[in-house]
Structure formats: C-alpha cells, structure tokens
Write a structure and sequence with these properties.
Helix content: 10-25%
Distance between the termini: 33 Å
Order of helices and strands: EHEHEE
Number of strands: 4
Strand order of the largest sheet: 1-2
Strand content: 25-35%
Shape: globular
Structural class: alpha+beta
Number of helices: 2
C-alpha cells in the first residue's frame, strides 16, 4: 500500500544498523517472542531516539514494544496472553469499523 502511494520502502533485517540511513520515517513491524531479547535492535533504536533526527517512528505490536524499550521502559510477560481474532476496532474519526487480530504475549511497564 505504501509503495502504491509513491513511498520508497526498504526492508532490512532486525539487526541492521539503520541509524545512519536516510529515511522519512521508520516503521517497526511485529515479530515473535520476548522483545527484550532483541538487544541489537533496541540499541539501534536508542541511538535514533537519543539523536536529533526529526523523522517519526511508527510501531505495530512488537515494533511498538521495541520503541518503548529503547526509550527506557521495561517489558513483562503477560500472565495470560491476549490472543484472538475478530476483535472489532472503531476509527473514532471516520466511524469506520475494522475487524482485527490480536496476538500479544508481552506488555510494557513504564
């Protein structure tokens, strides 16, 4: 969808040092497992966050957890993971409803 709208998208592995790359924004996707174990990615994100780059960082699921860990938060294993599909989400601005899937095994504690 982003490419169809004219965006250039670069896919890099989780342990790639993107801190010196040129980009208009970072999009961190999801992944499996304990987010605290991806220390290489957390350190790279910490470099980006602590620098003076103005580009936004977007995260979905584990990507959001990675950004939180890089900013100094801690993660914890949920006692009962949030797993399921057909979870309704309402866009409060447009009124449009979406059906989503949920798959969260870890939470973030500030």
């Amino acid at each position: 969808l982003l490419v169809k709208r004219g965006a250039e998208v670069r896919l890099v592995p989780w342990n790639h040092d993107f801190s010196k790359m040129e980009y208009d924004g970072l999009f961190l996707s999801s992944g499996p497992g304990n987010p605290a174990l991806a220390t290489t990615l957390i350190e790279t994100l910490r470099k980006v966050i602590s620098g003076d780059r103005p580009e936004p960082i977007f995260g979905i699921c584990m990507g959001n957890q990675m950004a939180a860990l890089a900013a100094g938060a801690k993660s914890y294993k949920l006692p009962m993971a949030n797993r399921g599909q057909n979870q309704p989400v309402l866009n409060m601005m447009s009124g449009q409803a979406f059906i989503t899937a949920q798959n969260h095994g870890y939470g973030i504690d500030t």
